[in-house]
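TL;DR need structure tokens for one chain.
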Amino acid sequence: MEKLKTLEQLTIKLYESPSHQLRSQSEEALTEFINSRDSISKILQFLDKTNCAYLRLYLSAQLRKIIIEKFAVFSDKEIDEIKLVSINFLTKKSKGVTNFVKVSFQRLLAIVIKLNWETESSQQVVSMFTDVFFSNQDQALCLIGLKTFGILVEEFSQQITNAESFLEHRQRTISFRGQILLDIFRLGIVFLESIATKFLLNQNEDLNQQQSTNRLEESVQLGLDALDLLTKCLSFDFLGSPYYLTETTCDQFILQLPPCWANTIQSKDMLPLFFLLYANISKFRSKILQVLFFFSSIRKSLFTDEQLRKDFLSNLISGTLGILLKYQDPNNNNTNNNNNDNQENLNILQKVINQNQNYDYNNEDYDQSIIHGLARIVYKIKLNHRMKSLTQIDQFLPWMEEIANLTFLCFEMKMLDNTENYLLEFWGKLSTSLRYVRNQDVVKTLKRVVHKVLVKWINFVLETISKEDIKTANTFNSGNSFSNYNNNSHNYEDNFDEDSFDLIFGSHSKPLGKESRFMIALEATTGLGLCNYPETTQFLSELFKSSFESYKKLMSTKWGHPKCGKNAAVLSILVTLFGSFVGYKHRKLIHIKEENSLTEATECDARLAALTFNLLEWNDSFLLQSQHTGYEILEVSFLFFLDMFRRSYVSPSTNSRNAIYLRLYELTNFKNNIHLLKIFINKIINNLQIWSNSELILQRTLTLFDKFAQPYCVGAKLLSVKKIDNLVINHTEIIFPFIEKYSENRSYRTKFYQTISTLLFSEKEHIVIEKIFSVFVDPFQKVAEQIILILGQQSSLKSTNFTSHNYSKNDLKVILGFIKDLLGVVSSANNTKVYTLIFDWLYPDFFKLFNEIIISFPNHYKVIIQILKLLSEISYNRYQRIIFESWSPNGVYLVKALISTVDEISTKLVQSMGNKNDNNYSNYPFLNNCDNNNNNKFFKCLKLLMEILFRAISGNYVSIGVFQVYSGNTLHNIIDSLINIIISLPQSAILNRFELYETFISLIAILSKDLIEYLIKRNSKQFKTLIQLIAQGFAITQNQFICDRCCMAIDSIIEFYFINYNNQYLRNEKTRNLTQILNSHFENNPNLLKDLFNFVFNIVLFESKSENWAISKLFLSLMLVEKEEFLNIKQNKINNIDNEEDKVKLEQIFEELVSDIENNLYRVNKSKFRNKLEKFVDEIKIFDIEYWKKYRK
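>> reply
TL;DR here they are.
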């Protein structure tokens, strides 16, 4: 008893003491008690005797933890005792105890039942719980029983990773699902039926109000727990992957109930029971909607008869219709006053269902959670059922009308985004399904309702956005504000702020930020507009024309007026809608009829496009003439529309659209598609010239420009536009100010020149390309001459005598911009002719200039990194573009130039490292001026150096052996320097940087294949560190590419050793010397191969990688080299088995692995071993599971 009191005091201190020291001391003392030998028996004894809530909580939680970690050591007697203690507490001692203690005991009982599920006593849990909790009709015990069942269902639905494998979890889950899950579900239904019965008694019996209220209140908590239990049963892991357990993931799943559930689900009383409880007990409503959501997700194949499925769907729609009717008229009272006598032979529950088919739903307020639940249900009904099935329901049209009313209410109440999106997704899917409806009356009604919803949504968006402030671009920057004016012509308010842009297009300051409410809903509502496209076009055209006229008048007379911003916002919304209609990806699914060889869709697209192009041309013309700054929000909507129009009518992936050009000619005097392309190009160039202060517009304009230039046929057509010819010649910062403004932003300048170069190289005739290219690169030649002057040389580009001095920020900006521009030009080369043209221009003059820039700017990491990026792009043999003629020495020149630069930088790195042992790698010549993240800059440079070397070796545009003949030890020195840097760093510094390690392992893999001597020729300590670093790669990463390269590198070394070590006929002196060096490495590190083999064996056995071709080859190579170690592993595994029969079985498994495997590394032998290894791993795992079960018994 003294020990018990001590433990109680310790737990009180642990949970209540404000002193951290006292809590720590109490925890240490309690941990010592838990880790004692006889702790399990003492825990059970104290759990049964103590009355302290904290001690009960602590001991039950610790006992559960011990069970999860060491369940195999528990005897059957201890397991039964744990069950007995838990049930005894829950039934006899839980009254008045806090809820968290009860839950702890319930979780303890549930985990014991699950892990001991193979025994007969655990599988009889339903009958045991019924006898214990439900036999006496004690409401308190019933509550505990329902919660215990709920926790038990949760435990079986999720895997306990520390206590069971996935296979064991699925076996128990399937057994639990097949034996008792349905019984638990039915038990919850029984309790709900009893509550409904009590409700009927309260209505029919002559009871006073107090008695009636007390009787219902007693059942509320019981009903809530029963509904929780039903929700857990329906959200059970039926398939083995509980991906639908959250609201976000469960929207797309189909509830795969087993066939044995069919009779229960198909019962005629099932759904009416829930709607009855919903109508009369308000506290049940949110939980009932959760259950109804799962009912609406049930797979259709569960119903054995078509009529049963139709009846179920009809009950679901009629029930939700009854709920939806409440939102039509708040004063509606739809109760049924039928007091006729009922047949006496009907049971009480049937009387309830028969008497309350029209339920009173008017006892609730406009609860947003209820509306959200309804939105999820109606969305799921449409997602799970075809349009044909829905239209066969008599109440479908009224149901749809009430969903429209609910949608309008959602707009008016400004509900949460998710609620609105569920409803809009419902209407979007409904509109795309109209083509499958044959009843024209239904189609007509649906189109009318869908159009009404669309109009309401557009008005809602316009009213919302017009209450926000839309200011000009210069107003955004300066922060100036305008005076408010009264607007008598509209009902919109002019209470403005600066968040309007985010309302439409999302946060443009955060590219990965949350997308706006409008853009999220746009795709769903686009289907609504195309459902009745002509009427939608007419409605939007009228809105557009009135806003356009107002916008022109205000811009001409009162530029900068707040009303201009409001009109710009409205026009932006309308132009964005136009774009979504024109470029909708599912437009073929919409029911559109043909008329006079010109489809309605094309006619409507032409009308909307004409309106947009008129606004676009007028707006650009006005801004250029008036020198005013326009509205950023409107410009972004223009870019969105142009992109959508390009997708449908300009992209080469679509069919010819001559009809729309004819119609546009009638509406806007467009002559052909070339005329249309001029508008696109004019807009792009104007944006690049005018909007240099807006990064968002620049980014989207460059993206659109790139999309136009990428398709070959479109790019060739663009070359016929006059402005493109001028752009190829005049592309400096004088004409495009953003080039100088964002000289340090790589993406803008690089993408701009990449797109121009792509257009230039889309010309068909190579002679024309060369002529235009010579004009195109003239500005670069001038900048190169300027850089020479900056570097201190006043002569021509051919000279290489440069001096060094202090440089200004402007000098640095010129050099960085020049390198980024060249990067854009080089990255546009996608074929051999273009690449050769660019290389002949760059080599040798510009390569010399790059080297001298590196020498002259040793303290500027930005310059070094940008040059390395450029050289990496030059060395990248993308699309096999680097293929020189057989007589051309360009391949040698290229590799020589690359190796020269890499040698220069890597040598400085090695010299600057010295003998430092700290983890700060920033003290290098070109990293001295770094402010933050110095180590990252160092690793970035190191990664780029290895990337260039890897691409130079693996590019196949020259034989690397040439450099061993003509360049001495240059290549060897580079590789040696980079590898020395890598192995001198802590392994964690390499392994924690994915891109760096990926580049390193790719380089090592290619060296082990073609230049293995560079890996072998180093001291034994370095060689061991290198092998360990490579081996760590396929152990810690899940990336298949890295795993393959790691295996390839080590396998090449082991295979080289296996083939050449005992080869008596080896005559090549170089190979013989390398073999001797490699053998000395293994002799100096005698455990290296053994540890490596054990390491690979464990990975193959426990990480499911035996099917990998690369690791199976490595396993075979190590097994042939370390035969004794393989036998030792085999013998150790067998010696750990007690049963002689199991020993023989395990030995046979090992013998089958090596049978028929020859002592060579030929491809046939490797392929045979791979198949055997897969079978070996599977048999070992099955053997371990079976042996573990025998051991437990």
